[in-house]
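User: My instructor asked us to take a sequence, write out its structure as tokens, and then describe one feature of it. I'm not sure where to start. Here is the sequence I was given:
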Amino acid sequence: MAEKLPRALENVLYGREHGFSDDPVWQAMQFAVCCGVADDFVLGSMDQRVHQHQVRRAMDGPFSGRQHNQGDFVLGLDIHKRPVLCPHEYFNEPSLTIGSTGSGKTTKSRFWTLQLASKVEGLWLIDLRKREYRILRPYLQRVGVDLLIVPARKLRLNPLQVPD
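Assistant: Let's start with the prediction itself. The structure tokens for your sequence are:
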């Protein structure tokens, strides 16, 4: 059975994994631990910094990391009102949004459509029940995208022959 690492080394590894190395004070504490000369004050300070970081991460929610804030497409806002970003290339597959009446499905769909329309060559918006996308026509025209509206009764799709 493998021995557990001393707490000071666990803190050093945690700091490396979570980007503490930019902090000169953390670098000095890490150096003291690696040289074996860290006293109780240094060890306590490291414990406190790691603990505070862990609490912040726990309270920030699932989209707090750097990897969730890279890209050109805004998914929405996190609990701190910061944008959650991703690359627009993630949306090259069909998507489906399900929710009860008033949950924001149409608003989200319009918001995402306005972001994607100028970045992709083709975009299909299908609403078989209402006419929720008509309002986007003038906004899409501003970015050079023509919105074609086909009544559901006249819609005939052959997935093997998609028109240009």
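For the description part of your assignment, you could build on this observation: The radius of gyration is 25 Å. Try explaining in your own words what that tells you about the chain.
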